[in-house]
Amino acid sequence: MNMMKATPPVTPLPHAPGDHPQVRMGKVGVLLANLGTPDDYTYWPMRRYLNEFLSDRRVIDYSPFLWQPLLQGIILTSRPFRSGAAYKSIWNHEAGESPLATITKAQTAQMAKRLRARFGDRVVVDYCMRYGNPSTISKVEAMQAAGCDRIVFFPLYPQYAGATSATANDQFFRALMKLKWQPSARTIAPYFDDPRYIEALAQSVEEAYAKAEVEPDILVCSYHGVPKRYLMEGDPYHCQCQKTTRLLRERLGWDKSRIKTTFQSKFGPEEWLKPYTVEEVARLAEEDGKKNIAVIAPAFSADCIETLEEINEEIKESFEEAGGEHFTYIPCLNDGDAHMDALADIVADNLSGWT
Ligand SMILES: C=CC1=C(C)c2cc3[nH]c(cc4nc(cc5[nH]c(cc1n2)c(C)c5CCC(=O)O)C(CCC(=O)O)=C4C)c(C)c3C=C
Ligand SMILES: [Fe+2]
Ligand SMILES: [Fe+2]
């Protein structure tokens, strides 16, 4: 009896080799994602950006039948002017873009440098935005064209929120839905309690305290707010923010009186997570006699309108008007070495088995 296995019949290709589309494969994409930013601070680019952002039901979950008339008819007629003026005050005029765009590009370059040193050319690093440019879909398509058959998607928000991490992931999966050959995909988990992120935050606090003219009486950790209802409906953002502050405090070896958690950027009439930073810094100066404070914004991986304008201008003003004397703003971790080392390590963990 012939024990040799029969060779399976060869199915002919539907096309002659010359007609076959070129198939690129074998690379791994690392796609960093941030929120997005307007292309310019003038009315129409501001309106386009705010419209896309504020129409996202992960951000504002009201029924579109009620919300859209209000958004299109009232909010988008005035807010683009007000927010545009705020963007103008922090704009990177030399590069013709907002600070968030400039910093995200620098972070991408630093990430690429670190991953190239570890994994060589097999890993392709790029960034995209949830709203505005460069869009998530354009970058997913570009990665596939570059031969990435696996993509690790990294929303650059340390704490999970439906309004940030989840909507970034939604947009990534929407982009994958359009592809005939869908790459394998991983999304990176929030890193609010990762010791490498906490260490980078702690080092930035230590450096700022060493340089401060007067030692701050208290460190205010100001996180971007969300409606309180989102917490009650199961969004863990509030708890992850509290835990980041606690871990930072423990790493710094401080007692509870030296640090506190607050929430900024309230929008609309609903109650948001409290205490509100703008009120709390005034209360600290007026009622608690804390005349020297430092403010850090651990929910932002890059400086942006919410830190450079809201914290370092509006919130600072509120503190000073209430009698505060020294206000130290501690910049976001941006493309600093400790931060980029931490983020590159987190990516490397998530590349396990793929490189
Ligand atoms: C209206 C609801 C909003 C929710 C909820 C919200 C959550 C949220 N946002 C960030 C991070 C960023 N937000 C930024 C700007 C920004 N945020 C809102 C509104 C909500 N954010 C608006 C309307 C704007 C635009 C500016 C303005 O008009 O006030 C930015 C900065 C972008 C930039 O270009 O610099 C970031 C970053 C987080 C982390 C978060 C919830 C956890
Ligand atoms: Fe926001
Ligand atoms: Fe909580």
TrEMBL record:
Keyword set includes Kinase: no
Metal-binding in keyword set: yes
Stated name of the protein: Ferrochelatase
Record pathway: Porphyrin-containing compound metabolism; protoheme biosynthesis; protoheme from protoporphyrin-IX: step 1/1
Enzyme class: lyase
Keywords: Cytoplasm, Heme biosynthesis, Iron, Lyase, Metal-binding, Porphyrin biosynthesis
Major location category of this protein: cytoplasm
InterPro entries recorded: Ferrochelatase, Ferrochelatase_C, Ferrochelatase_N
Gene Ontology terms for molecular function: ferrochelatase activity; metal ion binding
Family: Belongs to the ferrochelatase family.
GO-annotated cellular components: cytoplasm
Enzyme Commission number: 4.98.1.1
A GO biological-process term: heme biosynthetic process
Function statement: Catalyzes the ferrous insertion into protoporphyrin IX.
Top-rank taxon: Bacteria
Residues the entry annotates as binding Fe(2+): H224, E306
